[in-house]
Amino acid sequence: MVYGCGNSVIKFLVFALNLLICLGGAVILGVSLWANLDKNFSSNIGEFIEKTKLPSDYADLGKYQASLWVLVGVGALLFLVGFLGCCGAACENTLLLTLFFIIVLILAVIELGAAIFAVTNKDDFYNKIDNVLEKGYEQDKTQFVIIQDAFTCCGTPKHPEGYNCTTTQQEAQ
Prior knowledge:
With 173 residues, the chain is an all-alpha fold.
């Protein structure tokens, strides 16, 4: 049981934070499910992109299908974690709070592992990204113009032919 003003404030803050997480997860889950399942969503995005004069390549949702399903999973997980936290805090239910803590702990360990993996494999990651950028640049140079103009750089450490670089990669950062 929670007693006293300080404990009530903490209980309210835990509830409010988890409510925001739950609502955010519900929004992500709903929008990503809508984008995946609605047949007209892609054409509506295409019309919006035409009105805003963005490159038409952004309208093809087929390229992003796997990412949308990942967002469904992330939204569902956020909703579940937020729901467990809200109910556990509001009802002061030990089981729900324990499940909430275990899930958050597992996610923190996964994030820590991903961070360690990213730091230890940084050079390999940069090399693979450079290869992808170089191959993509060779196939379709127009896709890189937006990035190159936005960051005033060439996008890769090796300056590709056909683009006049005014700054080096180090200066652009």
